[in-house]
Amino acid sequence: VAFSPDGRLLATGSFDKAIYIWDIARQQIVHGYRGTRVGASAADRT
């Protein structure tokens, strides 16, 4: 789980190889990545 620097977006990931980017204000997923080639073990904002 990681927040964008401005706090408007939230990135979540899980062991089922799904990564979602959430718009906090709208409480909606704005991007989703899922599949065997997608995975993440850490998130870091730059």
UniProtKB/TrEMBL annotation:
Entry keyword annotation includes Lipid metabolism: no
Pfam families given in the database record: WD40
Segments crossing the lipid bilayer: none
Keyword Transmembrane part of the UniProt annotation: no
Keywords: Repeat, WD repeat
InterPro entries, alphabetized: WD40/YVTN_repeat-like_dom_sf, WD40_repeat_CS, WD40_repeat_dom_sf, WD40_rpt
Mapped WD repeat ranges: 1-32
Record protein name field: Uncharacterized protein
Organism: Rotaria socialis
Highest classification ranks of the organism: Eukaryota, Metazoa, Spiralia, Gnathifera, Rotifera
